[in-house]
Amino acid sequence: MSDTKPATHLPDFTPVPRQRDRSNGWKPHVQRAFIEALADTGSVASACRAVNRSTHGAYSLRRQPGAEEFAAAWEAALDFGMKRIEDVAMDRALNGVEVPVYSYGQLVGTRISYSDCLLMFMLRNRAPERFGEGRAKAMNAIGKMDLKRKKKEWRAEWEAEQARVTPAQVRASIERKVQDTLAQMERNHSPRAWAAWQEYKRIRAEDAANGYRAQDDPDHPHYAKRTAPDDPAARRAEDSIPLPPPHWQKRPPEPQQEETPRTRTLKDDGWD
């Protein structure tokens, strides 16, 4: 816990000097009234409304030369206002708030509503050693900025470490992994299987050096598949397949129906 005691009163400050004395300007008494209202409400907008000034003018005044004491009093007033907001939140968490009750669109009374979430939030942040495992649960703006800064530092360290790795080191790492894999294969296989594997690699390297191609080897299955259409028996079997009749895709003409069907009567000769 910090040994710094909270301030019990607003600090006195020298008002920001103004070049012109305007009726709607930020005169010294207006500046002091603004700081007092800010301490009471904790809201810049509410304090500006209390002195009938704009928030734009308040922030502009804070940036003017000679406004150092005014800015310090501003921060102290916000601390007072934040304490007041915390007190209001704790009062609502403990005593609840009165909300209206309606029935069929008509106001019939009120009831007290309590917020357990608000109560737990206040307990965790006001007594973190008892209700927040020694720390506040919520991360404030400073904590978020610090986390963002640390992420950038970690990223820069990782990129610097990756940049120090040369291609030769990458190839050496891959070669080590291959040798480890071969050593593991030698441990897990019998001597006869290992000898067969070494012989397979020797024959494969010899075939590659001689320019071996499976398509040109009569003993290879791919060579037999490639030469199969030249077999006379295969040609006869292909010629024996019956061909479809000419115009097999054309459909027979469909019978056309009369546009206006004829109505038969008893006098027609077509009746049996």
Automatic annotation (TrEMBL):
| Superkingdom of the organism of origin | Bacteria
Residue span of region Disordered: 1-25, 212-272
Biased composition, class Basic and acidic residues, residue ranges: 214-239, 259-272
Q: What is this protein called?
A: Terminase small subunit
